[in-house]
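hey can u check if this looks right to u? its 396 residues, i copy pasted from the old doc so theres a chance i mangled smth
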Amino acid sequence: MTKRRVYVDNAATTPVHPQVMKEMLPYFTQYYGNPSSIHSFGRQAKHAMDKARERVAAALGAATDEVFFTGSGTEADNWAVKGVAFANKGRGNHIITTKIEHHALLHTCQYLEKHGFEVTYLDVDEYGRISLKQLNEAIKDSTILISIMFANNEIGTIQPVGEIARIAKEKGIYFHTDAVQAMGNVKIDVKEIGVDLLSISAHKIMGPKGIGVLYIRKGIRIDNLVHGGAQERRRRSGTENVAAVVGMGKAAQLAAENLEQHTKRMTSLRDRLIDGIIERIPHVKLNGHPTERLANNVNFSFEFVEGEALLLSLDMAGIAASSGSACTSGSLDPSHVLLAIGLSHETAHGSLRMTLGEANTEEDIDYILEQLPPIANRLRELSPLFKQCEGGKVSV
């Protein structure tokens, strides 16, 4: 009997949508001109980029000249934070972020600390939400930027970005949000939110890898991150990856068009999986906000279970999941996000993240709920701590 294969690691990456692939393919072999060239080949490529930019702008509620293509969401985060910091250092040197940001943001802030900037890393509550009161208290006369992610990539918690934007605007501070995980799972309207800068990535929304976008509101003072040419209206140098840009545009269009249907179906599957795990497996804790979370995110801690062993066992059963961010899968340290919401090192090591996507079905959820309980039980049987606590009340 063929083993079932279930992919529930869509926060790490998604498959490319067939419609996205179809639109991209001609730009590898047929319309291969450099968009900076003035001949017909170049004009064809430039037209394709303009169309993609219009699609992204429409998906974000932005103007086309506020959309800038980058090589990734990570580059977009770097550009937003470094660019604003260095362009506005005459006004101040203080940046506010959180302890649960993606490393693309945290490592960028740590870099800036080595170059004379001061960074405040806000705490979060047990669900991963910031306190608006603490945010207000952290603001100084020297604060030039607030950068807080729209939704967390590990636990799925959604931040009150509209309120954060309002606070930033009242204080005359720029606000950037990493919306890489939110895009396609939450409605995003940059004007309605009031955000100044926003990062997204194509491969999280069934687009190609190696392409991202930074939305920069008109009038923002920001330095360039990449130098060397006049591409992206002299803001981001380098010959454009036209095929990937086309893919980004189509993926953004589909994400916006299918948002309501997608989130409704993902929420149903997500809740079926969450409820099933709680019913079938003792000593587990749902990580992240119970309601203010991404429609496709499920994150649990399993007491007395080691996360890597859990992932390998699931993989042997044909289930692809994650213990956190794919970018840190090679690290032996527990998730900084799980530690920030108050979990112990031991409990954080026993975490499992399952993120759903368009290909997932109710049968996939049933298969996970069939396979996961015996795997967790078997691994616990190997734990001396579980044997010591067996029969007693244990809380994560």
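Confidence is low (pLDDT under 50) at residues 392-396.
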